[in-house]
Every structure is written in C-alpha cells, then in structure tokens.
Design goal:
Layout: H1 11-61, H2 81-85, E1 105-106, E2 112-113, H3 132-136
Antiparallel strand pairs: 1-2
Length: about 140
C-alpha cells in the first residue's frame, strides 16, 4: 500500500507571503488615511454650508439682521449664535467638526460649545445686530 503524503507550506513560503502582505499594507495605509481625511473635509464643508443656510434663514426672519455673537445682555451667559440658529438646523450634529479632537457639547449654563466660530467683526457681543445689507453693499455705495 502506498502511503499518502501530506504536503503543507514551508516556513519560508509562509514568511514570503507575510512579507508581501506587509508591503501591500504599507503602501495602502497612507492611501486610506488620505481618503479618510478627504471625507472629513467634505463633511466639514457640508456642515459649513448648512450653518450658512441657517444663518440666512435667521436673517430672513429677523428683518435682514445677523445674529449677534451672544443674545441680549439678560441672557448673554446662556445663548450664543449657535443657540439662535438651532431652530433653523435639522440637528445640532452640524456643529461637530469631524477633524476636531472634541465634540460639540452644551455647557453647564446651556450655551453651545463647538469648534466652529463666527467672525465677530461683523456682529456685536452686546446683543445688537448688524444689518446684512451693510455687509453686502460695496464700500461707498449709497
């Protein structure tokens, strides 16, 4: 009777396959990292577009005036521009920056805290608002 031979992989063959897989992984990991960062950038751009749309909707409802940096002095400790835009956002998830180390949160005083910000050159901290038409009209045009 013939004896049946069992043939398996040798140690060298297994090491060669492992080395090939390691080389392919080293080539592909940076590609995946770039793709992930591009997805984060796209998500961030979408969030900013939604915040801009919420801002414009706010302006339409409040006689073409922008939101102030914080609400009127009586509530300035609890309401920021993000709180004022909340009714115009589908959800507050747009306040999460995908590349930021932390996430959007609500402070103990009820104020929204996010990595997105507003240019306070065009708004007032005291609760006064700025007419949008002043921002959009060319300098010196009346």
């Amino acid at each position: 009777m013939r004896r049946e031979e069992k043939r398996g992989f040798t140690l060298i063959e297994l090491l060669v396959v492992k080395a090939i897989i390691a080389i392919l992984a080293a080539i592909l990991f940076p590609v995946f990292a770039r793709a992930r960062e591009n997805a984060r950038k796209s998500n961030c751009l979408s969030n900013l577009k939604q915040l801009g749309t919420a801002h414009m909707m706010y302006c339409q409802d409040y006689d073409e005036r922008t939101a102030s940096y914080q609400d009127v002095p009586a509530a300035a400790a609890t309401r920021s521009w993000m709180n004022m835009f909340e009714p115009y956002m589908k959800n507050t998830g747009v306040l999460n920056c995908p590349s930021a180390p932390g996430k959007f949160r609500v402070s103990s005083s009820g104020m929204y805290v996010s990595y997105y910000g507003v240019n306070i050159t065009n708004v007032s901290v005291s609760g006064a608002t700025l007419d949008v038409s002043l921002l959009l009209s060319p300098a010196g045009a009346d």
